[in-house]
Amino acid sequence: MYLKSIELHGFKSFANKTVLKFNKGITGIVGPNGSGKSNVADAVRWVLGEQSAKQLRGSKMEDVIFSGTENRKPLGFAYVAITIDNSDHKLPMDYDELTVARRVYRSGESEYLINGHVSRLRDVQELFFDTGIGKEGYSIIGQGQIDKILSGKPEERRELFDEAVGIVKYKKRKAMAEKNLDIEKQNLYRVTDILAELEKQTGPLFRQSEKAREYLKYRDALKALDIQMYLSEYGRLKADAAAYKEKTDIARGDLETSQKALEKTRAEYEALELRLEECHRKIDALKMQISEIQLSREKNESEIRILKEQIRSDQSTAGHYEERQRQIQQDIESRRREAADWESQKEKLGEKIISLRSVKSRTENELDTVSGMIEKLRQKIDEKNSEIIEALSHAGSVKAKLQRYDTMLEQIQIRRSELNQRLLLLKSEAVSRKEQMAAYAQEKQALDHQKDELQGKLKDGQEKGSEIQKRIDGCHELLTAREQEYHRMASRFQTLQGITERYEGYGNSIRRIMEQKKQTPGIIGVVADILKVEKAYETAIETALGGSIQNVVTKDEKTAKLMIEYLKRNRFGRATFLPMTSIVPKTLNDRERILKEKGVIGVGSDLIRYDDGFKTLAEYLLGRVVVADSMDNALKLAKKYRYSLRIVTLEGESLNPGGSISGGTFKNSGNLLGRHREMEEMQQQMHILKETLDRLNRETDQAHDEKRENKRRISMFQEDLQEINLKSNTLYVNISQLETSAAGQEDTYKALSSEAEELNRQTGEISSLKESLLQEKAGHEAVKAGAEQTIEELNQKLEEEVRKQQEISSKASEIGVDFSGYIQKQNFLDENIRRTSEEVKGLVRTGEELRERQNEILAEIQKKQAMAETMEIKNQENFDSDDSVKSELNIYMKEREEISGRHKGFFETREQLSDRCGLLDKEIFRLEHLNERCDEERNKLSNYMWETYELTYSTALALKPSEDIPVSMEEIRRNIGELKKSMKALGNINLGAIEEYKEVSERYTTLKAQHDDLVEAEEKLVGIIKDLDGAMREQFRTNFVKIQENFNRVFKELFGGGRGSLELMEDMDVLDAGIRIIAQPPGKKLQNMMQLSGGEKALTAIALLFAIQSLKPSPFCLLDEIEAALDDANVKRYARYLNHLTEDTQFIIITHRRGTMNAADVLYGVTMQEKGVSALVSVNLIENELTK
Predict the structure, then answer these.
(1) Partner residues linked to 2 by β-bridges
(2) Contact yes or no for 945/227 (Cβ under 8 A)
(3) Mean predicted confidence (pLDDT) in 784-797
(4) What Cα–Cα distance (Å) separates residue 913 from each residue in 274, 283, 413, 927, 1179?
(5) Is pLDDT at 559 greater than 80 in this prediction?
């Protein structure tokens, strides 16, 4: 199997249809930079399923389509097809030739084709599993992948090795199996939950259905008994009604006869009744008069008793007032005695205060005197201290002069020694020459010093240059890292911005509405875009908002109505709208009290930010939501307010009014509320990074300026060094000349002798001055000693005075405390005297008020005694009048008894007739009532039968059994009672339970079968995953050992020695462990990849690729300038080794290196004869033909 051809049309720079045909062996693709060589590698990678535009050196997938030039228009699609020879059928297909193609359009549509048939990306990937071909394989290697193999983390190299050892297909199958296992588990969880719910329903439904069946059986038996009883009772009631009607007619005839006799007796009775009534009126009037007289008498007696009782009460009150006045007088005298006692104490206390004030004044004067003495002693001590300081100052000055004279003597001694040495030198024949040579030597020394300084400065400049270069390199590294970070963040920001603008994560209806935002100005936005919240409160606020987070806010109801019609018209689904003109803010009751509760962070509407004008919206959504810091505090708060609050916690738990609680893991995949915050944070971070980049650029420019300035200074130092070297050479010539000169030796000797004499004279003067200074120093020492003794005596006196001051101060403090106590006591006595005086005045006022009340009560007693005497006289008059009225009453009483005797006979006759009429009337009423009752009973029975069974009398009669077995009513009622008792014992009956139980049973049976199938599938998938893990581990271990051996062998061949090894990361599963590459080029210590040079790194990576190819050769391999970092010798080794591998692998090499070109069998040249459009030239190096 090998790659036969590649067809490109509209892919990147290949605007025209271009076909590259390949044979087995090595094919090279060459051309200048920018001609489009690497686009061939990108095309193969793309057609094999690459989904990352970045891997294809673009920013989006549309970039692979030819974008046009100055003379050509952009194309609308890109097409790439690769044709593979499959005559050996290594690919699992029946075709000898296989063409895989991919096409993409600017609209974003894309398709894959296998031999012209539309296929899926997954089909293409599975086709090349375990062949080394594919975007994850090792058949297409570019410079970037070489660097990734070397510089990447050990874990990032797994893909390459997994493909090489042939476990990618197992990993894909395992991933698919795990995905299916997750799906099966989810289905199993769902089915298990449903089964559990159905099991809960099945038992109760079975019992209910059995009860319903038993109930129906009882109901049918009851119906038959009810019909039998109904027909029997109906006939009986009908016969009773006819009998009652006949008796009613007879009673009505008797009633008419009795009523006529009663009317006659009633007329006679009424005449006698009138006379009797007149007697009654007279008797009643007289009795009323007697009653009024008696009532008046009783009233007078009652009022007399009340007046006497009031007089006794007033007398008692007057006595109480008199007793109270005596107590008040005693209290006044007691208060006055207390006041006199306090006045006496006050006078004594005043005398003590006056005495203590004089003692206090004397003590304070004594304290002032001692303080003045202490101050004077301290002044004297300060004066003596000043004298000591002055003496020390003079002593220091003298000491300094002595030291200076000692120094001068030492210098004179040194100079004298120098003169003696020079005189000795001058005595020799070479005195003059040596002096001149010394002068030149001094000059030479100066030049050497300058030279050393310049060389030091030159060295500093060079070191500074190295330091500046390091700074520049550091800035470049930081700049590169920050730029990469900035670009990553910018890419993430653009992605997030795109998601936000496209409203991903929202429902379809919301996205459709927001697409109309530009055309409909009344749409403000979704709630998540309007409300802003800090990250700490995001979970709580999102929980509180719930589904409202996707509500659409509009300016008015008109816009909401318009959008609802739009959704209906296009069938886009449903949405909730919040018109700003109709929503009403919600406020929290007892807000201030709730906010002070423990754990309450605030109200939801106060924890968010929003623009002006949206306060109503915020309060409508969150005005009644309380945010708490923890679940415990939220529960306490809910309980305290009787579960009337909506509370959410920072972790997302929700406590609703009524007591329900929601909680658990908070999965916020959409992060709708946090998108804008995240974008704002990213903008801030990008701004900071941009400022950092600007600063680093400025620092880099500044470092480059410093580098140029440093180079200029180094150049100046080098010029100065050249000038000093020239002076040194001239000085050397002068010294050579002085070696032959000896003039002026005698004069120099005399001068030195006179100088020696002068030094001797100066030595004598300094010695005399030194003696006088020593005497002066002794005088200062004496002055200092005297002053110190005086200070010691003064300090002793000062200590005595201070001790005395402390004693007097302590005494004054005690006197002050006593004085303050007396003053406070005096104030207390004044307050008591004032208070007592006020109390006496109050008691005097109270006594006067009591005397006034006592006088008023005595006057009232006299008045009530006079009223009682008047009433007793009037009561006696009522006794006399009562006797005359009683005699007249007796006359009328006798007349009434006579009329009553006559009246009694008429009354008895009338009563008898009236009773008979009443009895007959009652009998008629009773009979009519019984008749009506029979009708009611019949109607009641009929209604019962209709309401219960929907039967009339005729239909019930039709249902009567043909064989009527006589049964007593008592037995029927007993049977009905037993049936009803049995039915009642069944309890509540669900007649629909029979059908429900049937449906639930059928559903349970079906789901149980599904459950068993799912359990079996889960066990099979777990077994498959276990088998795949075992197979992968075994295959990886076996093949990894082979790759290790191949790598060591290939490494030695390419490097000409040394050693290369591969190691698995420790403490990790063999299927996930990272792989560490260790290289030891010949003549060097064993080291990791980061310590190798660029060429060594590249050659090591090539050795690894060749080792993998040796283990498992891929049908073809496309290498894009992977040998660019190698020198010519290593390129030759690389090319030579390629030829070893061509037996199993076809190589297509993109290269610039001559050594690699020499190894190629066919060369394709890629040029741009037309700017921006790649063209092809091929050379067959075997046949030496040129085709174009």
Answers:
(1) 85
(2) yes
(3) 75
(4) 21, 31, 182, 21, 154
(5) yes
